[in-house]
Amino acid sequence: MDAVAELLKRGVDTAIPFPVDDAGFFTKDAPGFGPDREGGAARVIDDNGKKGNANQAVIEELIKRNALFARGRLKHSYPHSWRSKKPIIFRNTPQWFVYMDKDLGDGTTLRSRALKAIDDTRFVPSAGQNRIRAMIEERPDWVLSRQRAWGVPIAVFADVDGNVLKDEAVNQRIMEAFEAE
After folding, report:
1. Which of 39, 63, 98, 122 could form a disulfide with 142 if both were Cys (CB 3.0 to 4.6 A apart)?
2. pLDDT digit string (tens) for 4-53?
3. Is the full-model pTM beyond 0.70?
4. Sequential DSSP letters for 106-171
């Protein structure tokens, strides 16, 4: 993340393309294959987990541009979800990170505050304190937004353009709901 911070400081565009959407369609970030394509966006995978028309669309475009190097069938293994048994699409998605060592404006960092809180907490059994302390001491910057169907949810609301709602009243209500559980 330090590299990204440095690029931003220098004014370098760090925008990440998102060429495949949640439904498996190419987006505007896949020029010629997204929603502007004649016949609509090419689809990598359909609702049933079957191969869409994207591969064929890309092959046809390569042929049209005389840029297809070779064509043939290869047998290879492809990752599948252990839950649904459907193919997995690797795609760029927005992520949220926590800087562990960024100055919070008062000379402290999240890491130093967390370590102080650990030291100020009585653990039973006491071995738990050493374990969590070691985890926080060595923890790299933290990605909060891993896409999983389990675990603690991150309560975030975004509009259709991906703009995150930052409303203190909404956040307070969410925190109260979790505390009540």
Report:
1. 98
2. 788 889 999 888 899 999 889 999 999 999 999 988 999 998 888 888 99
3. no
4. SS--HHHHHHHHHHTS--SSTHHHHHHHHHHHH--SEE-----SSSS-----B-TT-PBP--HHHH
